[in-house]
Amino acid sequence: MDIDNILLHALAAAAHGWAVAPAIGKHPPLDRWQERGTADPEGVRALFNEVPRATGYGVLTGAKPGVDGKPLFVIDVDPRHGGDDTLAALEDSISALPDTVRVLTGGGGLHVYFEHPGGRIPGKADALGSGVDTRSDAQQVIGSGSIHPDTGRRYEFEAGYEPKSVDVAPLPEAWLTFIRATLVPAPTAAPKTAHTAYTGPSLVDRIKAALPIEVMADRITVMAWGSSRGSGLCPFHNDTSPSFVVWPGEGKWKCFGACDDSGDVIDLWRLAKAQGAI
Ligand SMILES: [Zn+2]
Q1: pTM here?
Q2: Which of 75, 141, 178, 213 has a 20 to 30 A CA-CA distance from 151?
Q3: Domain range for 129
Q4: Ligand 1 geometric centre to CA of 87 (Å)
């Protein structure tokens, strides 16, 4: 392994103000790397001297990254677990993510960098839905230039989203609200027990609330709305009489024509996406 090359990539990341620490594969081998990671070039060299077998480096995330790093929050998308579909649905129901630094992992995934908004935001697997993790306090993401342990390919900045092209963006307000609601349950007045399960609305319920089925229907066909239902030409088959019906109160839709298909707003979104209707 070309340790000098890895060190150069780590120093370049540190020059952006990000605290870094050596990694072997995806693993940080040093004790207390969460506190010792640094953006200082001499500090980075000293850490790498302790890990001659480093194959990469971690960029520290969270409100207090290492000695002197800029606080980062990263959305980690894994397409092998449906993360690209989940991210597209989230962007559709919340808002498109702004341009910011992005790293393509050597394993097919994507890391989207944001300024950490402060306060406690946990990093968690599948935090925002299937295949979309968050990386935050006392965690790391493997940085651009590191070698992926499974594929041998390098992590690299996505073209057009390198730090020379874009700044790390603040997390948009709507996303922050959604993430806080999802990951930081509000304290309840219920008496404290040893283990209190979160009983708020599920992620799916929140997406449904953010994307009303009548809004979705209006986007994909011309609807005529009555008091309890609406109908229009089905956008999914060659329809001549309006056989696509939506019940906003129930959050349901059905095609009574050739499709003979039905479901809720998420099913409708998936089908519209698959058929190129949105
Ligand atoms: Zn149809």
Answers
A1: 0.69
A2: 75
A3: 3-181
A4: 27
